[in-house]
Amino acid sequence: MRGPAPGRLYAAIQGRRNAGSLGLFAVVAAFLLAYAVLHPGLLTPAGLAKFTQSWFPLALVAMAQAMLMLAGGISLAIGPTVSLGAVIAATVMAGGGGVAGGIAAVALAGLASGLVTGLIVVRLNLPAIVVTLAGSFIISGAALVVLPRPGGSVPDWLSDLLAGNSPTALAILVLVVLAWKAYLATPLGLSLYAAGENPVGAYRSGVPVDRARIAAYALSSLLAAGAGLFVAAQTGSGDPLIGQAFTLNSIAAAVLGGIGFLGGQGTMRGALAGSLLLSVMISVMFHLGFSPVSQYVAQGLIIIGAVALPQLRKALLP
Predict the structure, then answer these.
(1) How far is CA 240 from the centre of its chain?
(2) Residue 9: what pLDDT?
(3) Which has fewest Cβ within 10 Å: 113, 156, 159, 237?
């Protein structure tokens, strides 16, 4: 007896994974429509470029956090890593290292910090939340050592390229998503969900659980450091404290997108949708005249509602 065709099986799996995110996608679409009505300039190339630039760093850190949570981990060092990437980029580029040197230094710092964190969590079997909390202090200190106060610089042409009127950020985000899809097709990528959902069973089945989790920490940190480079290009300089808000926002975006704390649950497109919702809801509330305090309160209530609704639906449906 022949089984279902591969295409039909793939569609069925994706349909089940998206089932919990359909409500989120509808809410995101509604907020985008409201924002387009309140700010018609969004529909112009320059408006789309500016909006994407405001969303891009949060999208990257949401992907970074989601990758770890899918593997059964979590990181409280996402924000400090963003700061570290920003100060390294601004310092190296201002110090004669050039753009290529700055990008290489940011990538190396991100990969190295993530790799060390992953090795400590996995090899020593320590709680990720404790290790990354300690790591957040160390990385914050390193950022302050590199640049004690806001300074450094990023070449104007790089700032114009990444944060000007061209949709470069959108193009880079598309490339990052395509790279994620390609990574999922590799042995380590295929092992990511299994390592988070059932690590013991996956290990007994020959899945390289430890390598998948360590690789997730390294790649996650690379994404966070890359977000820091982009923030430095936006501001034209480096700030050792600029990434502080990204830790909690990355967790909020991942949870909004349906990523579970127990690992192996959710999709990266859900995390991206969660980050997009956080970004666009702030823009909508700004145009509606909400005060900053009201924005924080409304943001918290919307997050609670978006997370609670699927659970209420499960409880109410037979």
Answers:
(1) 19
(2) 62
(3) 156
With a CB cutoff of 8 Å and minimum separation 6, the contacts of 57 are 82, 227, 230, 231, 246
Task: Confirm if 229 and 85 have CB atoms less than 8 A apart.
Answer: yes
Q: What is the pLDDT of residues 49-61, one digit of tens each?
A: 999 999 999 999 9
CA–CA distances in Å: residue 147 to residues 2, 102, 143, 151: 63, 14, 6, 7
Rounded average pLDDT over 152-169:
91
> Would you give the DSSP letter of residue 165?
S
Residue 317 pLDDT: 60
* pLDDT above 70 for 16: no
Distance separating alpha carbons of residues 159 and 164, to the nearest angstrom: 7
Model pTM score: 0.89
Nearest 10 degrees: Cα torsion 272, 277, 278, 283? 130
Q: How far apart are CA 63 and CA 253, in angstroms?
A: 9
Half-sphere exposure of 221 (CA within 13 A, CB side): 29
Q: Which residue has the tokens 């059932």?
A: 198
Neighbours of 316 (CB within 10 A): 7
Report which of 118, 105, 115 is spatially closest to residue 228, judged by C-alpha positions. 105
The residue count for the chain: 318
Q: Which of 6-15, 19-28, 39-48, 256-265 has the lowest mean pLDDT?
A: 6-15
